[in-house]
Amino acid sequence: MTEGAAAEFETRLKTVAEGAEDILDRLLGAATLPGEIARPARLLDAIRYSTLGGGKRLRPFLLVETARLFGVEGEGVFRAAAAVEMIHCYSLVHDDLPALDNDDLRRGRPTTHKAYDEATAILVGDGLLTYAFDVIADPATHQDAAIRAGLVLELARAAGFGGMIGGQVLDLEAEQSQAAHTTEAVIRLQSMKTGALLHFSVIAGAIIGNADARARAALSAYGLALGAAFQVADDILDVEADEAVLGKRAGKDAGRNKATLVAALGLEGARERRDRLAAEAIAALDCFSQGADAMILKEAARFVARRAS
């Protein structure tokens, strides 16, 4: 890949992050919507703390750039992107709670339950989860009710007990297991806990773009491989990364008997799997004729493999 493509990717990633930040800021404002009674100030403050001003916004990026493959851009696309980011941020708030990972640091600052309290953090997550579906279902996101319904269905399944939440349960069970974590079990867990929402981000762009069956199948393969590569890279970063760069506590996985591919395959084996998955994601897009736009998504797979935080 040329330096020019990498530079264009970085520019697009920054542009989408800024757009996502802008719409999240507006959606999470104090003004009530029709049917709402009030937005309590402390809850809103904690939600904004948990959602704004941090992260690469990779999930919004994948949704926006996939929709761009089919010539669809604008406010509605960014609303859908904001919804998936709300789901992601809610999952981080709950994941950090003492009952789960018990983390004190997220994105270089105190986690929500440390900055506020546990009860508020639970309600922040509940509020973001609910509001994400409010945003997706709103006609302002897309005028076609069938497309909105498709987005709601796919997001519910990606985030629910057969996806992200189910993966979290498997993660907790793995911590308590006395047996060695098998590669197959870790792959299944990670495909649910992390991969499902990344995969949805790509599929959502395809839904919004009215992709045909062939294009959607290719994008699904891309999203699955990219999501898997992302989590392997995360496992590696927990071993190798500097905590100040990572923005959260490093080296915690081994101490908590976490089911990771570093534990299952060794560090070198995990690196090889990460790189192989990134290559699979890139190859999945070879069927597209959209040139530079598809290349941006290919570069996203390379970014996932080389990221430092």
Automatic annotation (TrEMBL):
GO molecular function term, any single one: metal ion binding
InterPro entries hit by this protein: Isoprenoid_synthase_dom_sf (IPR008949), Polyprenyl_synt (IPR000092), Polyprenyl_synt_CS (IPR033749), Prenyl_diphosphate_synthase (IPR053378)
SUPFAM superfamilies in the record: Terpenoid synthases
Biological process according to GO: terpenoid biosynthetic process
Gene Ontology cellular-component terms listed: cytoplasm
Gene3D superfamilies named in the record: Farnesyl Diphosphate Synthase (1.10.600.10)
Keywords assigned by UniProt, alphabetized: Isoprene biosynthesis, Magnesium, Metal-binding, Transferase
Entry keyword annotation includes RNA-binding: no
Requisite cofactors: Mg(2+)
CDD domains xref list: Trans_IPPS_HT
Family affiliation: Belongs to the FPP/GGPP synthase family.
PANTHER family in the cross-refs: FARNESYL DIPHOSPHATE SYNTHASE
Protein name, per record: Probable farnesyl diphosphate synthase
